[in-house]
């Protein structure tokens, strides 16, 4: 099933400045995540990276994964990656919580091990959430428009 949620226009404008291979990988991985959890909210940021964050609420603290797009690469990040079981040792990074998987081709994420990790992150985020949310399947842009 392909996700039909459109990419937010301001985000897409910035995304178009990236290399086409990164754009294609981002769009496919975004669809993959949205298909796994269609009710998630997508929080959009443009800081040191152009980033789509997937959350079970409208809060960053309830996020289960993210897709930061840098100049020359893309990651599949897990906001609470150090708290997840990672039997296949897929996650890298040295932060207190965040871990990631480097993405350079579809097979880096379209496999049973990564799918299981994403589903575990979703389950963890649901159990860890402070209070239920009313925001479901929304895109919330935090991108500051240049006037």
Major β-sheet profile: 6 strands, mixed
Radius of gyration: 14 Å
Mean pLDDT, all residues: 92
| Range of helix content | 25-40%
Strand content: 15-25%
Overall shape? globular
H/E topology pattern: HHEEEEEHE
What would you call the structural class? alpha+beta
Distance between the termini: 38 Å
Task: Write up this protein.
The chain is 28% helix and 22% strand. It has 147 residues and is an alpha+beta fold. The chain has a six-stranded mixed sheet. The termini are far apart. The model has no long low-confidence stretch (mean pLDDT 92).
Which key phrases capture this entry?
147 residues, alpha+beta, 28% helix
Layout of strands and helices, then pairs:
Layout: H1 9-15, H2 20-36, E1 41-46, E2 50-55, E3 63-69, E4 74-78, E5 99-103, H3 112-128, E6 139-141
Parallel strand pairs: 1-6
Antiparallel strand pairs: 1-2, 2-3, 3-4, 4-5
How would you summarize this macromolecular structure in one to three sentences?
The chain is an alpha+beta fold and 147 residues long. Helices cover 28% and strands 22% of the residues.
């Amino acid at each position: 099933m392909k996700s039909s949620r459109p990419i937010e226009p301001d985000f897409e404008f910035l995304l178009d400045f990236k290399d086409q291979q990164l754009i294609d990988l981002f769009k496919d991985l975004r669809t993959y995540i949205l298909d796994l959890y269609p009710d998630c909210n997508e929080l959009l940021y443009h800081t040191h990276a152009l980033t789509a964050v997937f959350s079970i609420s409208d809060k960053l603290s309830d996020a289960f994964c993210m897709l930061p797009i840098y100049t020359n690469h893309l990651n599949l990040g897990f906001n609470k990656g150090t708290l997840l079981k990672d039997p296949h040792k897929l996650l890298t990074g040295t932060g207190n919580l965040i871990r990631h998987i480097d993405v350079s081709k579809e097979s880096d994420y379209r496999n049973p091990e990564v799918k299981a990790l994403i589903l575990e992150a979703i389950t963890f985020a649901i159990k860890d959430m402070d209070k239920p949310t009313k925001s479901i399947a929304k895109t919330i842009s935090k991108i500051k428009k240049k006037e």
